């Protein structure tokens, strides 16, 4: 095999039917997405979208403040190397300790730590407000092979917690981190993981859970039964504990940290009932640590720009207040 792409970053290719040419896509932490036609030897033919950073580029006003992240690996409990990405504030001084926010996902079929341009703006925003931002792809993430992803099979909410705990312990040992002011944030499966990290560990001071799955019996059957099997104990495809232990509800006694819960009320992916059930359970326990923001008409991915701004500002101000920055 011959490697055709060499620039450090994320590459993809779409070949013609006869494999004589391909359209290559590329981006990196410092290069916005580009598309170019190549022959099958990797020689460039023509730009489709050079998207070059310059004075006329939409990102130009922000380029001077762009933060290039750091990448590295830590070891899971079983010795498996896990990839991380780290953003440090530009004004971080030697010897200074800062609060941190871990952005978590953790579910199957998704890779969050890569050397691409995409999905990095939220982390940049948090870092510019003084937080060290950390993200780890634990066992279960995609593009590491089937064995790496299989840790979640019939067992969600377990290996991910172990791996994210390893990441949190590594993070708090760094000399630029305030170990008493660490927060965690996630959306969708990341919202689910935020709840588990708060409830199953004492590593974080506060967390924000967006559109979380709280009970897998309420989620889309095509996705859930692919990984967890049947929820019916009488079914031969049922695995004891897969649904019960994967739910957040057995761990609610440990969810004592400040929590901001966010959900779009028209979400047709993780339906609003997940949050309703969690609210009811926490209220029944008399818990006073939960704050709630719902968005009428919004689905799983917010559509309205004003609501996106409102949501992100609420998350930021919540962490500013709870992590003492």
Question: Would you write up a description of this structure?
Answer:
This protein has 325 residues and is α/β, with parallel strands linked by helices. The chain has two domains: 10-49; 67-322, Rossmann fold (3-Layer(aba) Sandwich). The chain is built from eight helices and twelve strands. The strands form two sheets. The protein has an eight-stranded mixed beta sheet with strand order 5-6-8-7-9-10-11-12, sandwiched between helices. β7 (98-103), α1 and β8 (132-137) form a beta-alpha-beta unit. It is globular. The model has no long low-confidence stretch (mean pLDDT 96).
- Write out the CATH superfamily name of the largest domain: Alpha/Beta hydrolase fold, catalytic domain
CATH class of the largest domain: Alpha Beta
* Helix run count: 8
H/E element order: EEEEEEEHEHHEHEHHEHEH
Query: What ranges have pLDDT less than 50 throughout 5 or more consecutive residues?
Result: none
Strand order of the largest sheet: 5-6-8-7-9-10-11-12
CATH topology of the largest domain: Rossmann fold
Per-chain topology:
Layout: E1 10-15, E2 21-28, E3 31-39, E4 44-49, E5 70-75, E6 81-87, E7 98-103, H1 121-128, E8 132-137, H2 146-149, H3 159-172, E9 177-187, H4 189-200, E10 206-210, H5 221-228, H6 242-246, E11 258-264, H7 273-284, E12 290-295, H8 305-322
Parallel strand pairs: 7-8, 7-9, 9-10, 10-11, 11-12
Antiparallel strand pairs: 1-2, 2-3, 3-4, 5-6, 6-8
